[in-house]
Design a protein that fits this description.
single chain, 606 residues, alpha+beta, OB fold (Dihydrolipoamide Acetyltransferase, E2P), BirA Bifunctional Protein, domain 2, Gyrase A, domain 2, 8-stranded mixed beta sheet, 5-stranded mixed β-barrel
Length: 606
């Protein structure tokens, strides 16, 4: 779906390279832009002049404007030109229906070269495979390319739509500070020294979490922000050290209010800015427990099946020691049925077995159904009833391959989820033109940190919990369900939030379970804790990953393609060569001294 749109010259005060049509024939115009392509036909010279609005063909005739023609003879790609001339309709047979301006051309009378250009390091006037490091080093040239401009414009239009949508519903946009106190919220903080307070630091916010909750205390009951966030963590295709989220908080709400608001927004965004088919309206909803049981993931891609089959009960009396031992120790046995793969070779089975082992499994059992027979290395250890329970009873048919993992619930979930994802990719089971949104809710509130010997928040320490689970805080904290909800799309999380704890005693209790004594709580979270004592309303919110959503809307594979100036996959800015050393005097000003790292600890920048 094209996102280009021209602007009214009456508004901007100038024409663009996408403005002119046949109705403008006979007008004298001035166009400015970059040389996209130049063609010299041994007399006439044709140049496609480009700006972000489109292309216009301009023509130089030595008999009409010899001076302009002479200048055009030396023009090359990416020169910046100002051309003055007359709009004329193209002769029959030379019109270009692929261009909005394809019915006209400009007969140039005067030409000024506003700037020359050296040869760019890659083609700008066509989409070609260019090394990403080179693109990021010359990002300002990369952004001239049509696809990248389309992504930048799409992002702008999506943000504008979000703002209008929320403004229409009574929300107020509030900016929150970028220099705050460092608090333990998950990933490492980026810290900022201050010359006014040597040896002390600000932190860049991982999110505006505490600030938006305090806005609820302030009575601004519907807040949003296009918020910049910073996390010093390992990078990957859909992560950056700095990123943007649509941040929302509301007072006097429950989960349904927030989920409904976001669901309608993303239905509208999908319909307006993509050509994808939504397979789930209203969006599918699934508890965390159900998602883990059926798919082994809290963000399963539901565009295809390969659902887990729990065969533990069917094998409780088995004499096969590997399965019997797992069941005796409280583990589970689950299977997935992979269509059409019964003919897998030994090397192919070894390959997928390694996937299972890399995710914690001790091994992978397989059953191939071919020509009416069931073939498996472990079939001789099982009864006919048990073989049926592992094949035809769970829906396997001739030509299918059954994969079985027996281990703890967590190991089985992780290993089979990776195998499910693997076969979804290699078999092309997911429709690339489909969006399947999924809400996951009722996450565990807490998880046990074995190393720290304490409880930790599964999402963030401000999540509220279901009132019916309150007694479990004393007896079984890991079973307490949070008022947390994530929105996922095609196997990726695109946002998440919760209804918060709005009473100090609840928040303090959770902090204590996480290992923060009262004095540490006050030191690290005092503003929020104090605020909760001044009539804090019930409140909740959500944060949606803007970069990730635009990535989906633009049909790109990583978020760097929809950010104007991203870092590379290692978090390095190749254009400005950052991070970089600073002067010794700057260190002195902020009261810092550097401890040298070993040579083998120096980071790789590309």
């Amino acid at each position: 779906m094209s996102t280009f749109r021209d602007v009214d010259p009456a508004v901007t005060g100038k024409l663009t390279c996408g403005s002119l049509r046949a109705v403008n024939a006979g007008e004298q115009v001035v166009l400015r832009g970059w040389v996209n392509r130049r063609r010299d036909l041994g007399g006439l010279i044709f140049i496609d002049l480009r700006d972000r609005y489109g292309l216009t063909q301009i023509v130089f005739n030595p008999e009409i404007a010899p001076a302009a023609h002479e200048i055009a003879s030396d023009v090359r790609n990416e020169f910046v030109l100002e051309a003055t001339g007359i709009v004329r309709e193209r002769p029959e047979g030379t019109r270009n229906p692929r261009l909005a301006t394809g019915d006209i051309e400009i007969e140039v009378h005067d030409l000024e070269v506003l700037n020359t250009a050296v040869n760019p390091p890659f083609y700008i006037n066509e989409e070609s495979d260019v090394d990403e490091s080179l693109r990021l080093k010359y990002r300002y040239l990369d952004l001239r390319r049509e696809r990248m401009q389309r992504n930048v414009i799409l992002r702008h239009q999506i943000v504008k739509y979000m703002r209008d949508y929320l403004d229409d519903r009574g929300f107020v946009e509030v900016e929150t500070p970028l220099l705050i106190r460092s608090t333990p919220e998950g990933a490492r903080d980026f810290v900022v020294p201050s010359s006014g307070f040597p040896g002390e630091f600000y932190a860049l916010p991982q999110s505006p979490q505490q600030l938006k909750q305090l806005l609820m205390v302030a009575g601004l009951d519907r807040y949003f922000q296009i918020a910049r966030c910073f996390r010093d963590e390992a990078q990957r295709a859909d992560r950056q050290p700095e990123f943007t989220q649509l941040d929302i908080e509301m007072s006097f709400v429950e989960e349904e209010d927030i989920m409904g608001l976001i669901e309608q927004l993303f239905i509208e965004l999908t319909e307006k800015f993509t050509e994808k088919r939504m397979s789930s309206r209203p969006f599918t909803r699934m508890t965390y427990a159900e998602a883990m049981d059926r798919f082994g993931s809290d963000r399963p891609d539901l565009r295809f099946g390969l659902e887990f089959q729990n065969v533990t009960d069917a094998l409780r009396s088995t004499g096969f020691k590997a399965f019997a031992g797992v069941i005796e120790n409280g583990g589970v046995i689950k299977a997935i049925v992979v269509p059409g793969c019964a003919g897998y070779s030994r090397s192919q089975i070894d390959e997928i077995t390694e996937i299972a082992k890399a995710n914690g499994a001790k091994g992978l059992a397989t059953f191939a159904l071919r020509d009416g027979e069931v073939k498996s290395p472990i079939a001789k250890f099982l009864s006919e009833t048990e073989i049926a329970a592992l094949t035809t009873d769970i829906g396997a048919r001739d030509g299918d391959l059954v994969l079985i993992v027996a281990d703890t619930f967590d190991v089985v979930s992780k290993a089979l989820a990776e195998l499910r994802s693997h076969f979804g990719d290699v078999l092309g089971l997911a429709d690339p033109n489909e969006f399947h949104f999924l809400w996951i809710y009722e996450f565990p509130l807490l998880e046990w940190d074995e190393e720290g010997q304490r409880w930790d928040a599964t999402h963030n320490p401000f999540c509220g919990f279901l009132e019916e689970d309150r007694s479990l805080l004393e007896t079984d904290p890991g079973a307490v369900r949070a008022k947390q909800y994530d929105l996922t799309l095609n196997g990726f999380e695109i946002g998440g939030g919760s209804v918060r704890m709005h009473k100090r005693e609840d928040q303090s209790k959770i902090f204590a379970m996480m290992g923060h004594p009262p004095d540490a709580q006050q030191e690290r979270f005092g503003a929020v804790l104090d605020g909760l004592e001044f009539g804090a309303p019930p409140h909740g919110g959500i944060a949606m990953g803007l970069d990730r959503w635009v990535m989906f809307a633009a049909d790109e594979n990583n978020i760097r393609e929809v950010m104007a100036f991203p870092k590379n996959q290692r978090g390095v800015d190749l254009m400005f060569d950052a991070p970089s050393p600073i002067d010794e005097q700057q260190l002195i000003d902020v009261g810092l001294a550097l401890r040298p790292k070993p040579e083998d600890a120096q980071p790789v920048r590309e």
